[in-house]
Specification:
single chain; 195 residues; alpha/beta; seven-stranded mixed β-sheet; 22% strand; globular; binds guanosine-5'-triphosphate; binds magnesium ion
Amino acid sequence: MKIKKSEIVAVTGNPSQYPEDNMKEIAFAGRSNVGKSSLLNMITNRKKLAKVSSSPGKTQTINFYEINDKFRIVDLPGYGYAKVSRSLSNSWGNMMDQYFNTREGLVTVIQLIDIRHEPTKQDIQMYEYLKHFNLDGIVVATKADKISRNEINKNVSVIRKKLKMEDHDIVIPTSSLKKTGYDELLDIIEQLIEL
Ligand code: GTP
Ligand code: MG
């Protein structure tokens, strides 16, 4: 698959403003600052489609991007951002529940985890939450350019173990900086969309 066209179609936390058709969607979930927006830019070959920031909590809405007029990638707001007030983290939970419960076109959620660190408690909870919705276990391990090849293999095993992943569950190390993992991720997205 070649991505020839990508455009933002909705930026909102309000379900009444989500796109109404049931075009297939793949969502990106993960801790604030893990690299969700950067991964979207990598996939679409665009530098500024999604806003990237070194301060966590940049994306606090659900952002819908339409790809090749065929499917959508959805950038979900990050979790684990300490400065977010309690009321906002509740609205975060509501936003997520709403989203997961209502999107008919939702094919899967790809969870992003920073390859440098052990999955956090919230990463583990998020993964369990996704499994509870029967979503496949696809993890993208981000920022692979920051560690050595040996460490990549070692840390992928730690992620697998901590999340209690099964053999058929997939972990793809990526680097948005170096475009590592691009082909593998795109192949998986293509397969999921064609199903
Ligand atoms: P929120 O919108 O706050 O939830 O964050 P996000 O998950 O969208 O993260 P974002 O893409 O904004 O990236 C956060 C920071 O990590 C930025 O400074 C990026 O440049 C950096 N970053 C993201 N991906 C990579 C990567 O693969 N390698 C390196 N070295 N840095 C990365
Ligand atoms: Mg973001």
